[in-house]
Amino acid sequence: MSSRRTNTGEIQKKSTEPSYALNHDGESDYSEQGLSRQDNRYSFNTDSDSTNFRKNKQSNEMNLSDDELMFDKEALAKNQNRDSFNYINHKIRAAYEGPSASETVFQLLEDEDELAIYDFFKNSSVDITTLLDSRGYTVLHISAYKGLEAICARLIQIAQEKSCSGLAEKDKTKKLKNWANVKTIEDEFSALHMASFSGKFSIVKMLIDIKANIYAANKDGLNMLHTAAQGDQAFMLYYFKSLGLNINSKDNRGSTPLHWACFSKSEIAISYLLAWEVNINEPDQRGLTPLHLAVKAVNDLNTTRPVRALLISGASRKVEDKIKRKPIDLIDEVDDPKLRAELKEILKTPSSFDCLMLKTPLKKVRKNPMQIIFYMFFFLVLNSVLFLYIFPATLDYSRHHFMMYGLGSIGIIALLFLIWCSCINPGFLEKPKIDFATLLDKLDPTMLCPECEVIRTPRSRHCSICNRCVERFDHHCPWINNCVGVKNHRSFMAFLFFTELSLILVIVYTALHFNDYNLDMQANYEQSGGLWLYFIPKHFPESMFTRTAVFWVKIGIFIFCGVFILPLFLLLFVQVRNFCAAKTTNERFSRRKPAKENSNTIIESTSSDSINGNLLHVDDTEAHKPTKQYHPESNGNCISNCWEMCCRSKMDNQDDIYLEHVNKN
Q1: How many angstroms separate the CA atoms of 48 and 370, rounded?
Q2: What is the pLDDT of residues 215-255, one digit of tens each?
Q3: pTM of the predicted structure, to 2 decimals
Q4: Domain 56-217: what homologous superfamily?
Q5: Of 466, 477, 561, 642, which one is the catalytic site residue?
Q6: How far apart are CA 201 and CA 356, in angstroms?
Q7: Based on CB atoms within 10 Å of each CB, which residue in 33, 399, 548, 625 is the most buried?
Q8: Architecture, CATH, for domain 220-349
């Protein structure tokens, strides 16, 4: 289940299909423990494989028979965490008020009629804290689950003004606390569980203000984080985490909030939990990891986004459950053949060639300076061979020294741009001064990056390698060990241009002088006036400077340059096209497809169509943009587009972005 916000900033829940089972060998499924929402109804259905809520007017009747009271006593005897006598007294008192009192209140809650509720209690002696339906629901449970903020505030006000009237402050606090912590009969959910599931922060605060227990767990061990994960509520996850709840806490079946998020198809919750580095490979009692559950969820989500996000965050493909099934063994249960094929591809064991980053690696990758070291090593080797061997043994210094200096200068410029691109900030989004909890409360969670705790801009993306959001993200380049963004894009273009130019010149000059030999190093040294370029070669053994040796070194130069010149040219061509269109590689080639029409999730496709291996797009949680991709419109003027890409590198202030969004709403 995913969530979205209306224009007023209110989180709305999308109805989902009934939860599917993960039964094997007669074991119970996840849905027996959890909360779910279907077609705006609420009920308990304990004789099936799911627990759902449905409206049921008859269940609200409080005219209890002796048999019903006996049933309640038996149910309560099993509940060690509840004051049974107080609870039975509540039921009896409510019953003797007459069936119309409680039935009327719960019917008004169904109708969401705040004024009618207030008028009813204004003219009634009913104690609102004693009202329960046959399932043990209080009015707080219903209002919290349905997200009725104004009504919940009114109910608490009524309790404070009427039910607690005349009580000492200590007794008043105790009575409200007991009311807030009443649990349902069957599954023992508190009102705070309901509020964390519905995602209404104001209701959560109201309940906590009257001493609702934030550490409460239901009979299956589900705490607030588990229900928030089921409800796809990013703010609730962040809030209860900040209050000290363990993000890796387990229920009675060993399931963590990430297990529940994957099972419930809560894409937003998955991305936020992954940002907090949860125990991603933790198995539950059946040995199922979150990746197992995410693979199962593909059938309903119609996308592999959660699976990709888990893999990029480090989920293991090799963990087996209790019946020896790996995640890849579950793909046969996916109906769509295209999705099955995609899952088979991404869940197979990564190739050893993935270290070359020829395509987006679906595994956890961190910045590694080895690519730069590798590049600089071969750069130095190539130039050393050229200037200390090929040029002295081929060219006459008196006629070609300008070419030597020119080629050397171009190589040095390319090296300097490489170092600059590697070291400069590519355009990382900086945290605003506003607290992240405030951002979550005021803005759609899909607008925020949970790792960086920043507001996403239309052209920013989160790079899981750099672990930062980058403004005008183009791609992550392993050769510079850095992202290419708004601050270093033009420098990257210059690096590509001068590197390509130097390779072309090396091949051209080597080809033009392929049959030229100038093997007398002593004469060359004297002719150059003692230039260092010829000083070192004259001390080499004469056997190194033979026609055969020089010939094969020239062949090696051709091969070495040829390996890099074509892919580098393609990359340069792509970047030139990008500049002419005022777009980035990410905007032109990434494939982003919504899971469902009008869906608004923040886990996006991690795949991107790259022209060559130097383009590495990693967007976790990808993370983390609405599925509608931003594509800037080209004004058709190539020169002005290039000017914009080269010269406009100003980044919007995060605090200004926040104020703009708040003012819009």
Answers
A1: 56
A2: 999 999 999 999 999 999 999 999 999 999 999 999 999 99
A3: 0.77
A4: Ankyrin repeat-containing domain (1.25.40.20)
A5: 477
A6: 46
A7: 625
A8: Alpha Horseshoe (1.25)
